[in-house]
Amino acid sequence: MKIQKIISLDKETAELAARKSNFSGWVRNQLRSERNKDEAAIYEQNIRELEGHVQMSSRELLWHLEQRTDEEIRALVSLLKKI
């Protein structure tokens, strides 16, 4: 048995819904877009904090990591996990 949930819309939202052929899909897309913006902002903030801690750009940090062996990277990750 499928259960339908009914919600009430204010006048402005009801008018918007009437113009959309798939209002619920549109709402889901809007919410997903906002979530993605929030996640992108958090990611950018984390990058800025990391760059501040290591005093180099993420590009430079990546270059240094690419110069290391797998064993060196595993050792570094192990140290970081202990912090």
- Which class best fits the helix and strand makeup? mainly alpha
N-to-C terminal Cα separation, in Å? Answer: 51 Å
Shape category: elongated
Could you report the average pLDDT, rounded to the nearest whole number? 90
Our count of helices gives 4
DSSP helix fraction? over 70%
Biggest sheet overview: none
pLDDT below 50 for ≥5 consecutive residues: which ranges?
A: none
Q: What pattern of helices and strands is seen along the backbone?
A: HHHH
Tell me the β content.
under 5%
The total number of structural domains is 1
List keywords for this structure.
single chain; 83 residues; mainly alpha; 4 helices; 76% helix
What does this structure look like?
This protein is mostly helical and 83 residues long. It is 76% helix and 0% strand. It contains four helices and no strands. The chain has helices spanning 11-19, 23-54, 58-66, 70-82.
Task: Please give a quick description of this structure.
This protein is mainly alpha-helical and 83 residues long. It contains four helices and no strands.
Fold blueprint:
Elements (H helix, E strand, L loop, with lengths): L10 H9 L3 H32 L3 H9 L3 H13 L1
